[in-house]
Amino acid sequence: MFKVIQRSVGPASLSLLTFKVYAAPKKDSPPPNPMKIDELSLYSVPEGQSKYVEEPRTQLEESISQLRHYCEPYTSWCQETYSQTKPKMQSLVQWGLDSYEYLQNAPPGFFPRLGVIGFAGLVGLLLARGSKVKKLVYPPGFMGFAASMYYPQQAITFVQVSGEKLYDWGLRGYIVVEDLWKGNFQKPGNVKNSPGNK
Question: Using CA atoms, how far apart are residues 164 and 83, in angstroms rounded to an integer?
């Protein structure tokens, strides 16, 4: 067993030693000519100049190009519409999520009040048979009246804001009609010759 250890340790210890090796050229052979970098095949430059030639378009590429050119206005319109409606849809989704959260944790007595308000709208719809104007006025009016009984503070605020908006719209309409009346009927050229103005 001693001999096996000695033989295996000897070559392993030699592998840890470092040696320097000096190579000397033979005195009989002439010195070789050093090669230049241009002579190596790796760095050779091809002769002549390359020129880019565009390949002709195929029938498929032409038809795809025409289709893209034809659809470009529609795709740009869709992108504009999407960019305009995206914030509105996000706010609508957020409103739906908030409403769902509110209905999950509704205050006590909310659902009976909601039922009474909905029933008032149905009564208004039943009473409005026959006339389109009544169908537009009665259900919201009955529902508004029922809601104002349960939520008087919010109803007062709603009536105040709605009254201000209605007054503002009426005033604007009056100004437009007045401008049209003055512009069309009181011009000097519009006065017709009456029998007394001969």
Answer: 33
H or E element in which residue 155 lies:
helix 152-185
Burial class, 113, CB count within 10 angstroms (exposed 0-12 / middle 13-18 / buried 19+): middle
Alpha helices in 56-105 (DSSP H): 59-104
Its pTM stands at: 0.41
The whole-chain average pLDDT of the chain stands at 78
> What is the DSSP-derived secondary structure letter of residue 135?
H
Confirm if 128 and 134 have CB atoms less than 8 A apart: yes
Tell me if 159 sits within 8 A of 173, measured CB to CB. Answer: no
Task: Tell me 108's DSSP state.
Answer: T
Cα–Cα distance for residue pair 91/84, rounded to 1 Å: 12
Residue with tokens 């033989």: 7
Q: Which residue from 147, 122, 125, 123 is spatially nearest to 136, judged by alpha carbons?
A: 125
The span from the CA of 167 to the CA of 163, in Å, is 6
What is the Cα–Cα distance from 8 to 2, expressed in whole angstroms? 10
Q: Does residue 41 or residue 96 have the better pLDDT?
A: 96
With bands split at pLDDT 50, 70 and 90, how would you rate the model's confidence at 24?
low
